[in-house]
Every structure is written in structure tokens, then in C-alpha cells.
Amino acid sequence: MRSRFSAFVTGDEDYLLRTWDPETRPERLHLEDNGIHFYRLDIIDTVDGGPLDDTGIVEFEAFYKGAAAGSQRERSQFRRTQCQWVYSTGDF
């Protein structure tokens, strides 16, 4: 989750797509500069996602400022594919 947040902050679309579940991944992301900059990530809760699990959940809050200020809270589902964790879906 933290690496995906860092990739989102820096606009690394390739990394975000590589770490997205192929079953739910969009063809392209639109990370154009909209005047909003994320600067902090708080992990609120985790469920599973350990060494013996194939799925996991991370609940987080990401804070932003710039053209608007606030935060986005999401509960994201991840799954393991070939020893790599990938983002599957998220509920806002």
C-alpha cells in the first residue's frame, strides 16, 4: 500500500498498473496535475495479508492539499499473484 501511495504521489503510472490486479486493472490511469497533492498516508486497519494469506485488506486515509484540502478514506482489497501483492478493488 505504501509503495502504491508513493507511486501515486510521484505520478508513476507504470508502477501503479503493474501492481494492479489484471482482472480489475484499467487500461490507463489519468494522473494529470489537477492542483491537488497527496502528502500523507495513514494506515487505519489491516485484515489478513500475512505470509500465508492469499488476500488482504488495508484501510487507509490519504491526505491532500493544494487546489482543495482534505482526505480520502478507502478500504482496499489486495490479492497475491505469483508471490506479488496486487491491488484488486477499493470501497470509498
Automatic annotation (TrEMBL):
Entry-linked InterPro entries: NTF2-like_dom_sf (IPR032710), YchJ-like_M (IPR048469)
Gene3D superfamilies per the UniProt record, alphabetical: 3.10.450.50
Residue stretches making up the YchJ-like middle NTF2-like domain: 1-90
Name used for this protein in its record: YchJ-like middle NTF2-like domain-containing protein
Pfam families: YchJ_M-like
